[in-house]
Amino acid sequence: MRPYWRDLRSIWIWIALAVVIASKWFFSSTGHAGPESLAEGIYEVRRVIDGDTLELMTGAIVHVDGIDPPETVKEDAPATPWSSEASELTKEFVERAGGRVGLTFPLERRDRRDRFLAFVWNGDEMLNEELIRAGLARAKVGYNYNSAMKRRLSDAQKEAQREGRGIWSRDESIVDTARP
Questions:
Q1: How far apart are CA 175 and CA 156, in angstroms?
Q2: Measured distance CA(95)–CA(97) in Å, rounded
Q3: What is the pLDDT of residues 16-31, one digit of tens each?
Q4: Using the 8-state DSSP alphabet, how is residue 13 labeled?
Q5: What is the DSSP letter of 171?
Q6: Does the model's pTM come out above 0.85?
Q7: DSSP character string of 136-171
Q8: Does residue 37 contact residue 45 with C-beta atoms inside 8 Å?
Q9: pLDDT tens digits for 70-114?
């Protein structure tokens, strides 16, 4: 016959195991966390968070890779110049795409905040490139993605600089704190 304390210990182990399984099921089914992975493909956008961040209907948060736009959403800080224009361009891009965008991924799939990194497409148009070309973001070529894409984004930035668009404008009435 087994001692009484061993029976209690096994009951507590089963209870603890049941709590762990139930909590994992609850938190994964409530939609608090996005999916663990995303395949390249077409996705429906739930909302545009800011100029370089989208939330998909799957719950995934996607960060537009290879760009650095002025910040719209930053805790305890006002929106920076050109940030609302970057957000607006992103919303218009998603609307033109009918709320469904294509995603392709660089070598690194997630950023330090655990968001998915992606190049965002509507047919042949790439959001990343359009934001840079409009002067509403800088090209960030120091990240781990292919050289052809880096060249494409760099060329868009050179065009925006040459044409004096957005953050590269000569309008002195707008103070751009992000300008070097």
A1: 23
A2: 5
A3: 656 656 555 444 433 4
A4: H
A5: -
A6: no
A7: SSEE-TTSSS-HHHHHHHHHHHHHHHHHT-GGG---
A8: no
A9: 876 666 666 678 999 999 999 999 999 999 999 999 988 998 889
Q: Provide the 3-class DSSP secondary structure of residue 138.
A: strand
Burial-class residue 37 by CB neighbours within 10 Å (0-12, 13-18, 19+).
Answer: exposed
As a whole number of angstroms, the distance between CA 138 and CA 167 comes to 9
CB-CB contact of 43 with 101 (8 Å)? yes
Tokens describing residue 130? 């359009």
Please list, residue by residue across 44-72, b when 16 or more beta carbons sit within 10 angstroms of its beta carbon and e when fewer do. ebeebbbbbbbbbeeebbbbbbbbbbbbb
Task: Return d(Cα 106, Cα 104) in angstroms, integer.
Answer: 7
Q: What residues are paired with 147 via a beta bridge?
A: none
DSSP string of 60-124, one letter each residue: -EEEETTEEPPPSS-TTSPPPTTHHHHHHHHHHHHHHTTTEEEEE--S--B-TTSPEEEEEEETT
Residues counted in the chain: 180
Whose tokens are 């001692």? That residue is 3
Give one word for 137, left, alpha or beta, with left for phi > 0 and alpha for psi -120 to 50: beta
